[in-house]
Amino acid sequence: MAGINITDLDKVYDSGTEKVVAVKDLSVDIDHGEFLVLVGPSGCGKSTTLRCLAGLEDVTEGSIAFGDQDVTDRRASERDVAMVFQNYALYPHMTVRSNIGFGLKLSTKLTGDEIEEKVEDVAEMLGISKLLNEKPKALSGGQQQRVALGRAIVREPSVFLMDEPLSNLDAKLRSDMRTELQELQADLDVTTVYVTHDQTEAMAMGDRIAVMDGGVLQQVGSPEEVYRSPVNQFVADFIGSPSINLLTADVDGDTLRGPGGFTYTLDDPAPVEGHDRVSVGIRPEDITIIDSGANVADVTVVEPMGNENFLYMEMGGHELTARVEPSIRPAEDTQVAFDFSEAAVYLFDVENGDALKTKTDTVDLSVVGTTES
Ligand code: ADP
């Protein structure tokens, strides 16, 4: 088993007439057995990074090591990786059994019986034993994705690379498969790099998540770290659903003044010292509806979610979203006053988006429970 070290990786696509910098100066160290999710908007360089790890693209600069082996110049077939794609890429004319075993037949000296045994073990692990003699077209999307996973697992690679493997599945199945895939990965203990544009999936699955934008790595951290302590406004805005509320405010001593009469006085103005304007971020769950106060917004839509309500509000032409208790259900087109604690406030530099302040309330993030199941 191997960890992965990506060092100063650049990837430039050069068609002769045009150069596209897809990945710029990327360095990440991924631990043995870690599940790292690469996440970011479309075109940010996630797939390119994964393809460089797989050996499907040459790197322009930099190096890639698996464990203590530099694999930068090795071909894909010499890297001991298994890839799982969004479109399954199963051979339609082969049975599930042959699809799963095919790679072993090509790349190992195992006997037919040994391959058969491995295929059956993996099929059982994935709950597809009954489908071994079917062809892919007889299977549902979820079953096909299990076969694709089986084909990767059976090879016992040192690294799994997964490119949006669940995005063709419907929402319920996707969420079930997320859990299944995480459990499998933990059991198999294989270093995994997983690409998705879906921040919810990234948060749910990653031991750590690496947020990219425009080919540049913005931040790597645990889901809690990137959520609570984003390095910049891009990360704060990309991570979290519904998104963080952002508005620009003038700094007047220790008071922030924004659109629609927004006003907030900081107990600790140190983060905004030297700034005339800042960007203020408040997560929807940190907004509290109160009877009366300085900040008042118009309620435009109320969405009851059962366990909570989403309030969509407007203040000085700015949309605000609040996640509140189900009992808080103001009528649409009325006004409500709201408040939030200073500990929950994020502040960003308006020029470069750098974080000036993130959440400062203390939350115990240690994992509880010690009994191995
Ligand atoms: P993501 O996976 O985050 O959506 P990609 O890694 O696919 O992003 O693409 C990153 C950038 O590189 C994009 O601007 C994309 O258009 C460009 N790109 C990707 N593949 C190629 C290619 N084969 N030739 C030229 N440009 C490419």
Please describe the topology of this protein.
Elements: E1 4-14, E2 19-30, E3 35-39, H1 46-54, E4 61-66, E5 69-70, E6 81-84, H2 96-107, H3 112-126, H4 141-153, E7 159-163, H5 171-188, E8 191-196, H6 199-205, E9 208-213, E10 216-221, H7 223-228, H8 233-238, E11 245-252, E12 255-257, E13 263-265, E14 277-282, E15 288-290, E16 296-304, E17 309-315, E18 318-324, E19 335-339, E20 346-349, E21 355-357
Parallel strand pairs: 3-8, 3-9, 6-7, 7-8
Antiparallel strand pairs: 1-2, 1-4, 4-5, 9-10, 11-12, 11-14, 12-13, 14-20, 15-19, 16-17, 16-19, 17-18, 20-21
Helix pairs in contact: 2-3, 2-4, 3-4
Strand content: 25-35%
DSSP helix fraction: 10-25%
Sheet having the most strands: 6 strands, mixed
User: Can you identify the CATH class of the largest domain?
Assistant: Alpha Beta
Query: Based on DSSP secondary structure assignment, what is the total number of beta strands?
Result: 21
Estimate nothing, just give the exact number of structural domains.
2
Could you give the order of the helices and strands? EEEHEEEHHHEHEHEEHHEEEEEEEEEEE
CATH topology grouping of the largest domain? Rossmann fold
- Look at the structure and give the mean pLDDT: 93
Number of helices: 8
At CATH's second level, what is the architecture of the largest domain? Answer: 3-Layer(aba) Sandwich
